[in-house]
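Z., the sequence and structure:
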Amino acid sequence: MVKVKHKFFCSECGYESPKWYGKCPGCGAWNSMVEEVEKTVKTQGMNSGIFHAKEKPQSIINIESGKEPRIQTGIGELNRVLGGGVVPGSLVLVGGDPGIGKSTLLLQTSHEMARSGLRVLYISGEESVRQTKLRAERLGTLSPELFVLCESSMDGIEEAIDEVKPDFVVIDSIQTVYLPEVTSAPGSVSQVRECTARFMRIAKGQGIATVLVGHVTKEGAIAGPRMLEHMVDCVLYFEGERHHSYRLLRAVKNRFGSTNEIGIFEMNESGLAEVANPSELFLSERPLGVAGSTVVASMEGTRPMLVELQALIAATHFPSPRRMATGVDYQRMNLILAVLEKRMGLFLQNQDAYVNLAGGVKLDEPAVDLAIAVSVASSFRDLPTKPYDVFFGEVGLTGEVRAVSRAEQRVKEAAKLGFKRVILPEKSMKGWKGPQEIQLIGVNTVADALAVALD
């Protein structure tokens, strides 16, 4: 017996309702409710679970613990973000803006894994097999163990997986896949949810590492219901500016590793190239002896990274001065400007303030506070800092400089790149000694840091 139901789903958050709303009660989006027809068919075996054998509850003490096996992708930056490689049977979701390089990254990954002896199935619902072959020739990613298929039907994809029996599957993209028994259009909330659930059963039941490519909305979030990100094991975002050649791969969810790691790539004619030393890359075009330019030592996961931070303070011609932040938190910048004005006596009420991180990178840790304060003061007073100084530290509302974690790794990275001095919180210097070739200057307040940097 087939039962037909008419329901409305929010295309932004997946909120379900029996009637239409102009404004979604779940996320507040306007005109996002779409009507879909659901057909419920009574069948047996639909709730059979993921695993072949029925498991019984057991004490957590009696469960054997061990590390998850990993499949090396052949791309070091991707392995870093995933936590050491792909886990067999895991479901990974990769999102990013159109044209940012998601398909290029996954095709190169497929080639490296196929070259290592694994069987890889690359399924594209947006490109024909000839188009995929042309892109593979341009990237030099041809391998006999890499199988390519142009298919968007879920039934056809399952048949191909049963026939090829791959170790690694790429679906490009999940918004193009559809189930014939679901009457809504491909890319709708119901189709994306049901197809993802089917891929999850395949991945867990057969132990196949599966990667899904997801489209993003104009706000940058992955299109479809928010439930999609809850269902998968790992969510990766491929970021980058169109006018920059650098791309950042960032994990926002990872059940098998840390979400603090990032992978850095450079886009060139032959595809994506790994950036092994991002600090040297971001500092390659740094001007020396210019007011408002400083170098900040940041930590992205376990990787120390030195980035140039620039500030420009200029007299405003408007009643309200402009404030603009690129790569750093806007609210954090306003907080530091208030501290400089209140504690240091810098009159910034009639000054426009612009803060920028060079290279298109984004940093959100508090350790960049001290570098922002020094850059703003340097530009306001038109006094350049020393060209071989590095800054890091958290700034409090009373003007104090607080300690940050992993100071030793930041200092070692600065010494490796030839910097002479590091201005850091004094409390971060306890319990370790820095390299002999670099001078460590501990400060307790922003006033101390400015006295050292702008003397």
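Residues 43-53 have pLDDT under 50 and may be disordered. The CA atoms of residues 5 and 108 lie 44 Å apart.

Let me know what you think.
H.
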